[in-house]
Amino acid sequence: MSGPRQEKERLLLDAAAASEKERRGEKPKESSASLHREAAGLDVRLRKRLALLDQQQSMSTKPPQILAAALVLSVPGPPSRK
Length: 82
Prior knowledge:
Layout: H1 4-23, H2 32-58
């Protein structure tokens, strides 16, 4: 499975090939402009995801706070009858 960076590079290479076909007057399967837009979109998504991961990594957990305390005492019951 290829990563986002590899996919972006593949799209840019495909865009260059499509541009060359367009220059020669041939019709590529997908236009170079479309492939460039797709590569740019992947780049934006990757940057947002990496920023989110950095933000999550820098988050620190806070220790629990004690909001209340209770003291429980045992009270002896009435004496038992035998």
